[in-house]
# Entry
Amino acid sequence: MPTTASPAHSLTDVAASDSTLRRFLHGLPGVDAVGLEARAASLGTRSIKTTAKAYAIDLAISMVDLTTLEGADTPGKVRALGAKAVRPDPTDRTTPATAAVCVYPDMVTVAKEAVAGSGVKVASVATAFPAGRAALDVKLADVRDAVAAGADEVDMVIDRGAFLAGHYMKVYDEIVAVRETCGTSARLKVIFETGELSTYDNIRRASWLGMLAGADFIKTSTGKVAVNATPPNTLLMLEAVRDFRAQTGIQVGVKPAGGIRTTKDAIKFLVLVNETVGEDWLDNHWFRFGASSLLNDLLMQRQKLATGRYSGPDYVTVD
Amino acid sequence: MSEKSEQQRLSVFKTYKLYVGGKFPRSESGRVYEVTDSKDKWLANAPLSSRKDARDAVVAARKAFGGWSGATAYNRGQILYRVAEMLEGRREQFTREVADAEGLSKSKATAVVDATIDRWVWYAGWTDKIAQVVGGGNPVAGPFFNLSSPEPTGVVAVLAPQESSFLGLVSVLAPVIATGNTAIVIASEKSPLPALSLGEVLATSDVPGGVVNVLSGRTAEIATPLASHQDVNAIDLAGADDVLAKELEIAAADNLKRVLRPQPVDNVDWSTTPGLDRMTAFLETKTVWHPTGSLGASGSAY
Amino acid sequence: MASASAFEYAPAPESRSVVDIAPSHGLFIDGEFTEAADGKVFKAVSPSTEEVLSEIAQAGEADVDRAVKAARKAFEKWSALPGSERAKYLFRIARIIQERSRELAVLETLDNGKPIKETRDADLPLVAAHFFYYAGWADKLDHAGFGANPRPLGVAGQVIPWNFPLLMLAWKIAPALATGNTVVLKPAETTPLSALFFADICRQAGLPKGVVNILPGYGDTGAALIAHPDVNKVAFTGSTAVGKEIARTVAGTRKKLTLELGGKGANIVFDDAPIDQAVEGIVSGIFFNQGQVCCAGSRLLVQESIQDELLESLKRRLSTLRLGDPLDKNTDIGAINSAEQLARITALTEQGEAEGAERWSPACELPSSGYWFAPTLFTNVTQAHTIARDEIFGPVLSVLSFRTPDEAVAKANNSQYGLSAGIWTEKGSRILAVAGKLRAGVIWSNTFNKFDPTSPFGGYKESGFGREGGRHGLEAYLDV
# Structure
């Protein structure tokens, strides 16, 4: 399929053909797994206390894409989620709202109503989430539905099969098409399902591929496979957005998703952001957590900081 | 050949020369000294090497080091075995020289030469085994492949034993070159002729020029500049007395040469099977690390 | 120095209360803490604050003699003990070190100035691991490849440096004891405390009297120990200049000598390197322990085609290093160990500038008391510069470039030293080819500054001789 539109950056000729794209992606610096994991682990030993912890908890809350992606989702469930996103801790109004709620396309309308007027965004997964195994037309229809229903953000999945088969141009073209379908109203998050790409070299290539094709965000995972967001794969993607901006001037966001359940984990990710790309990304416009249970742990830790007492699950809302 | 004609024929003397860089030079000093047998009978003149000869030998040995240490261990083994083959063909000559040098009976000298040939064979077999015996993988507590391998230290100055002019000489020289070092060997001061003749054997045994350099003369005079030479990596003091050994060890500290001190067993009995010590004394251990990692990123967790 | 960010890390100091430093400490001789014969003392100072931590007895010649006699006396029984029993003492020591590791980490950070992150995560785990490793050898020496029933040497005189005080002690004492030797050890004058705490651990472990003796003091104490006629084995880690002096001292004796000396390690980065990991390796290579590491990657050799890009990444990374209170868990760069060392680093970097190299440091505020030096990078450095040849032993990186692998190897080897080197490339055959040509005892490929008790460590050329660690490390303490 020929590319119908090219993103505006200095690397457009990279995607002139399958072979130029392959050469570019395979020419990216390799990743040494042990070194990458050691760096992530080392940053994981940062000790974030008192004022820094308070800052980090509020920042993390504000970065949560509060997510429900179940077959059993109902309007009631989604409304409850929306209410929680807008006012995560009803007992403490200083608690920031989350960044967004994240739902399937058919729940976008309900979600929009639930968060109306709050500034909380509605993100919708699309493109035959989570497998991405559908014809492009079907995927684009999925995206159109979500956008038409008012989604502020679209979380698409790439075709991992095509990527692993080396058909990078196919993956690229799909992202470009989805980007176009999102129009100007929705920001596009591109999910790589890093657990399926398997190697760090692939994750770096996918990151660049996604950004070249116009992703506003690159996102680790669907949350539906065994390995989702990890500090090393997120660190690697942060390096990619840092390098991409250095080369093109375009800033791209990062969203680790799945498996981040505790405040301690979330703070580790914020440390990665702080020390890899710096404060330009310390904002929910550029960094998100795709999570559900994380929020309550953040809230309990926030209460602990405020009161000095350890909180318990009965003191946060369960939806 | 009749008795008469034998009396008439004047034998041809051999001019003994140094062996440096694969060539047979005289001492640049032009000096020689008289070598006598155990009964003080003149045998030949030998070159009386100077400091400059020592320096030239270092240059030759350094030049040869890259090729010799870079040769395959198998190749070095073949060459050392070739030395044994060549010696076997010249047993008579060396038996005579050793008998003269050390005052041995013909049968005893023959036994010494045979043992010396066998010593070359022994070390020839070691070239491609020593790394397996003294090197190996180290099970480090982390995701790393870690391998220690022995490597030759470089240019080694060898003071050959003073008494055992041939078996002793080979017993200290062969382990040095078996592992890929190059050598400057100072022959027994009193009995240098077997060593100088050995040079002729080495030259025809595919040993590359410069791998072994043989100097004759006053041990102390030659050894002193070698011990302090900054481009010599190690020194074997087998042929030094206590006073000289101490002086040389002090000089060797200037560039931290590896020093093999005279061993209590030296000059006692060279005929016993050697251990690894004379090889490991001139080996460095190099340890190389590399990450192993996992097959993919999936296995990583918090 | 971390650039002002909205995400400011609040101070996170490790508690000092875990360690109790007595106002004065004696020598440890024959199982007892004792004053020096001449009553001399010196002060242990915290390099990050210049606070006096304790007053330490300073061993003189008479004390050296007393300690060697105690060690000699203990040797007879200790060496005759079944290896399995010696092993159990070492296992006990390893366990007690693990139990007391937080205390020892804080102590080491106070006395040395290095970040608690390093003492906690590197020094102490490696110390315990070293004792564990050699403990296991004590009853297996017949299988170590040195013949049947290899014998110990006798009394080992050991002199260690201040950069890894307790780890260097472990590297010296663990193999010595496992093989049946007894020990007189002199810690560095600027870092005596952890060795004295170790003496206490020996008592807790019930180690027989005289097997380990600790003699704090200056260079003259070390010289007296090494020259003592009843010492059979000398082991030294420190500067090449002192190493040469020691080699001269023991010349003509039967004392067995091993030396672990200076280095000027080349960290070689090829154009196909895993760049982000290479940057981390460069940083760890020269800024780990403030660069006060003999195997530091103090010369960065970068392929010219990627030099600008790599330097940009490196500078960006250096700007995130956090310098300050060594006890703060988030500190990356601690204090320089002493005023003397700081003066040496300062002098050499000034010479670097005077010789025309270009100096760069990230914006960095240094604490007002204590000994501090900002991470520093020199570009436009050639082989002829002093800072490319002399060991600085500080957080100072000299950057040189090369064009081809041949040139990289030639430049890396062009040094009087030969301790360590690094290779960064994704091409396996290049790693093996370059590693084979480098004249250095430890080669880290696609990693740097990794240590393990099973892995032999030591140098080529003027970086010393003998190996510490692994099976190889036994040889230094056996009569073979």
